Amino acid sequence: MSQQFDVVVIGAGPGGYVAAIRAAQLGFKTACIDEFKNKEGKQSLGGTCLNVGCIPSKALLESSENWERIEHKFEAHGISVTGAQFDVKKMLERKDGIVAKLTQGVAYLLKKNKVTALFGHGKLLAHKDGAWQIEVAGEATETVTATHVIIATGSVPRQLPGTPTDNKLILDNEGALAIPEVPKKLGVIGAGVIGLEMGSVWKRLGADVTILEAAPGFLLAADEAVAKEAQKIFTKDLGLRISTSVKIGEVKPGKNNVTVSYADSEGKEYSETFDKLIVAIGRVPNTWNLAADAVQLPLDERGFVVVDDACRTSLPNLWAIGDVVRGPMLAHKASEEGVAVAERLAGQHPHIDFNTVPWVIYTSPEMAWVGKTEQQLKKEGVDYRKGQFPFSPNGRALGLGETAGFVKMLADAKTDRILGVHIIGPYASELITEAVVAMEFNASSEDIARIVHAHPSLSEALHEAALGVDKRGLHS
């Protein structure tokens, strides 16, 4: 007889495992299915984010930034380092150790909360007699049943047409995190989060990095002022070569290198040969072999599972969350959707405001934002005021030696309600949370301006930006 559950979650990434834990906490008999295996061939929970995405990339970013500090920044502190060396193998081992600790932690959390972990590929077979039949194809194949199913299968890297990644010469995010030695010449197709983060890692370690972007501008999703500042820093200070409005032609792998043909916005053609090529042109929903044809899983024209505002599909007791549905492909968005669905199953009424989901790019300096950009407000005809304050006169930033960037706050001209906050600078990923909390409570710029901020602290830049909305900055 097959195992029976109240809730089965397909996928153990940040959305899936959190959904499973919350469902179990609410009293549901819960299982979580996942098929990811690490490079040793062992089952490893946590999905792309923990295994080959968010977490390992941050580990390598920190390692590369430490090397940059030794090479270029410690001298200003009176610290001289002679004969410094770095070992890529040890950097990768440290990264792998962090991943192992966190993925093992997920396994512990599932066990602690009495969630049954099922290893294999999960596939919806049918809905009969009020229950879903789900195939789990692992070392053996079994069928389990569940009253409710939550699809949390995430996303996979978008492939360059005609040029699949092999993670030897042509790399996706997984391959970019495991390059065994610093390439002399590294090509990156795509100037998004993955392209910028991985390009900056290997540039700091000594690679000559060229980033080719198809979009007509740089970081078009970010506030224009942030994108402009970031492009200046990445090209002039870090030394990345970034070209936009690029049309990629033939990508030809050789024995030990890859040749990329491309044209610029004026049609001028180029050809460059790289030791490695990272393809970071976005991600697509992972719905491969997710349901039998008879199930008729509702997908839109881009392959996303179709859901309503509550993450409910049109099929009975079938839900979907995270990268596999509409909305930003962000781990924290997936986690909160997972919690919300579990609570809806228990009759609760949670709410997620997508307008206050923060975005972060963990380059150096970091970029983070929440709410509307200035160009969006202009396009929508919203009457707004803004305040902006640089990190250059901030005492804490000066002490850190990280003074690039600024904080920008946008507020409604009539109500003063905060509409957006945009940060490029040190620890932007941490600073943005104050703005998220403020916007969740419909705070005004005046509210932030009247809050006492610790001195010296980086958060004072947010305080000054809020003061600047009313043109009463104290240090500008």
UniProtKB/TrEMBL annotation:
UniProt keywords, alphabetically: Cytoplasm, Disulfide bond, FAD, Flavoprotein, NAD, Oxidoreductase, Redox-active center
Keyword Chloroplast set for record: no
Pfam families: Pyr_redox_2 (PF07992), Pyr_redox_dim (PF02852)
Reactions this protein catalyses: N(6)-[(R)-dihydrolipoyl]-L-lysyl-[protein] + NAD(+) = N(6)-[(R)-lipoyl]-L-lysyl-[protein] + NADH + H(+)
Localization, UniProt: Cytoplasm
GO molecular function: dihydrolipoyl dehydrogenase (NADH) activity
Residue span, FAD/NAD(P)-binding domain: 5-338
Main location per the UniProt record: cytoplasm
Gene3D superfamilies documented for this protein: 3.30.390.30, FAD/NAD(P)-binding domain
Family from the record: Belongs to the class-I pyridine nucleotide-disulfide oxidoreductase family.
Remarks, miscellaneous: The active site is a redox-active disulfide bond.
Protein name listed in UniProt: Dihydrolipoyl dehydrogenase
